[in-house]
Design the sequence.
């Protein structure tokens, strides 16, 4: 039973008691693995195998497991897409306006509430450390930075736009489509004209 629990921990990157129960494994197996030093506790009901590889996106993986319906956004998405050199101290996650706030103390989350097209448009799905993580694409992330410019600073939004425009895979049509969907086209237009 403990070996199966350890395999699940390696497979998922981070594991919860509910993950083990879903596979017919008693939670006691997890306690035994922690006692033997094969699994470490990351937070309330969040564990990882001590020998599991940790990538630069490990915080995003843990955040996705804490808030599976959330989408990595703003500064964390900028970092994921290499549109900033800043390293945010918490993971920025977008949740539906009606979604419950995740209770896990780790990783630290900076939550923003989206609805409608602002929540559903521009979402990419990535598999990181064996876990499905939803992240807003580069164009949507730039638009969101303008939407939250009062919170992040206009300089962050403009720098993100400048870096996005310098990319080979930039898509101005997609950028403007998302800006219109999020009602940011009029705000972004002068900056686009100045940078192009």
Sequence:
């Amino acid at each position: 039973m403990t070996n199966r629990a350890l395999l699940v921990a390696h497979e998922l990157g981070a594991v919860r008691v509910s993950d083990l129960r879903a596979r017919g494994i008693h939670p006691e197996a997890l306690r035994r693995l922690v006692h033997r030093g094969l699994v470490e506790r990351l937070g309330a009901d969040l564990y990882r195998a001590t020998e599991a590889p940790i990538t630069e996106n490990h915080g995003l993986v843990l955040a996705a497991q804490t808030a599976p319906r959330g989408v990595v956004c703003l500064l964390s998405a900028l970092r994921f897409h290499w549109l900033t050199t800043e390293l945010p101290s918490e993971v920025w996650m977008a949740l539906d306006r009606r979604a419950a706030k995740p209770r896990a103390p780790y990783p630290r989350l900076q939550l923003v509430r989206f609805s409608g097209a602002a929540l559903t448009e521009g979402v990419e799905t990535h598999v990181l450390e064996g876990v499905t993580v939803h992240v807003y694409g580069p164009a949507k992330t730039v638009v969101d930075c303008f939407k939250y410019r009062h919170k992040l600073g206009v300089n962050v939004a403009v720098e993100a736009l400048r870096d996005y425009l310098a990319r080979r895979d930039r898509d101005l049509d997609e950028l403007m489509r998302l800006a219109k969907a999020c009602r940011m086209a009029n705000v972004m237009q002068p900056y686009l004209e100045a940078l192009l």
User: Anything to note?
Assistant: The longest strand covers residues 91-96. The beta strands are 39-43, 46-49, 71-72, 91-96, 109-114, 123-128, 131-136. Residues 154-165 form the longest helix (12 residues).
